[in-house]
Amino acid sequence: MASGTNYSQEYGQAEKAYLESNFAQAAEIIDHLADEFPNDPNVLLLRGHIYCYGFQNYDVAKQQYEDVLSLSNASELLDFARSGIEQIEQLQEQLLESDKSFASDNLGYESDLSDMDFPDEQAYEEGFEGDNFADHQIMRLT
Known about the structure:
Elements: H1 4-19, H2 23-36, H3 41-54, H4 58-71, H5 75-114, H6 121-126
Helix pairs in contact: 1-2, 1-3, 2-3, 3-4, 3-5, 4-5
């Protein structure tokens, strides 16, 4: 287990990396801290932010925020955790709507394709039987 000094230093490094959008480094540090301090709401909150806003891994982030809600009594931490959960729910709803829109748009294209006339593939290939392209003269533009 890390000492208080190491905890503060590592947490500060994770926070700095997160604020500088260096999410891989932030995650590496905060994951280590979460292993050592699995019930620390500050670590869990920062971990939620990193996974939510850095990696868009909403399932991991939401679990971190929910853990903060169950472990902390500090109103500021609770507010941030609730806000994170609300943000995730909004983002997931937007993604779901976007997926629905994309799927319905694609259905329209598929029906458009079914109405199109395509050349008969067999007739197309038969047209090349016996055709020796080497016999054709090549025109040169000079």
